[in-house]
Amino acid sequence: MIENIDFFKLAEERYSVRNFSNKAIEKSVLDKILKGGHLAPTACNRQPQRILIINSEEGIMKLRKCTECHFGASAAILICYDKNECWQRKYDGKASGDIDASIVTTHMMLEATALGVGTTWVMHFIPETVREEFAIPTNIEPVALLVLGYPAPSAKPFPGHTQFRPLEDLVSYNEF
């Protein structure tokens, strides 16, 4: 067992930040967030994820053409996968890329929280505009934007953030 990690506390404290300060994320902090994603499991360890850091003024201006959900963040991470490197389930051909990219995104999101960096997972973006603005090749599939930065002093969770359906409504054992 790993000592001194309170996963539930980390998961409870994490929320979608929609109000960021102007403070830039230090490269050493960004490197730790990326390491969190690098450690994420992927199907058969194929590691099809491809990650683009968007933290220049020009990049942020391009990002704003792709989504209205940037919340004034000073940086974003575009998480994609290479369609040619995904594991595929032999029974129906389901590719693992979107799942692998999502696991990587979750790891980075939680590591950011542990480091005091706020994030919002954004799927509301225009894929064609992302491809055009960031010159994304056709074999690379954009999955998520993780907008990130230091939360503004006025940042707070969405009012429904701590409201959960009862676990027994979501989980069953051996039957549906």
CATH first level: which class?
A: Alpha Beta
> What fraction strand?
15-25%
Helix count equals: 6
Q: Biggest sheet: strands, sense, closure? A: 4 strands, antiparallel
The CATH topology name reads: NADH Oxidase
Question: CATH homologous superfamily name?
Answer: NADH Oxidase
- Under the CATH scheme, which architecture would be assigned? 3-Layer(aba) Sandwich
Question: In the residues, how many domains can be counted?
Answer: 1
User: What is the H-and-E element order?
Assistant: HHEHEHEHEH
Helix content: 25-40%
Low-confidence stretches: none
Oligomeric assembly:
single chain
Overall pLDDT score: 96
Q: How many beta strands in the DSSP annotation?
A: 4
Sheet/helix structural class: alpha+beta
Instruction: Write out the strand line-up for the largest beta sheet, numbering strands in chain order.
Output: 1-2-4-3
Gyration radius (Cα, Å) is: 17 Å
From the spread of the alpha carbons, the general shape counts as: globular
How far apart lie the N and C ends? 33 Å
Overview of the molecule:
The chain is an alpha+beta fold and 176 residues long. It has one domain: NADH Oxidase, CATH 3.40.109. It is built from 6 helices and 4 strands; from the N terminus they run H-H-E-H-E-H-E-H-E-H. It has a 4-stranded antiparallel beta sheet with strand order 1-2-4-3, sandwiched between helices. Helix 3 runs antiparallel to helix 5. The longest helix is centred in the middle third of the chain and has 18 residues. The protein starts with 6 loop residues before the first helix and ends in a 6-residue tail after the last helix. The model has no long low-confidence stretch (mean pLDDT 96).
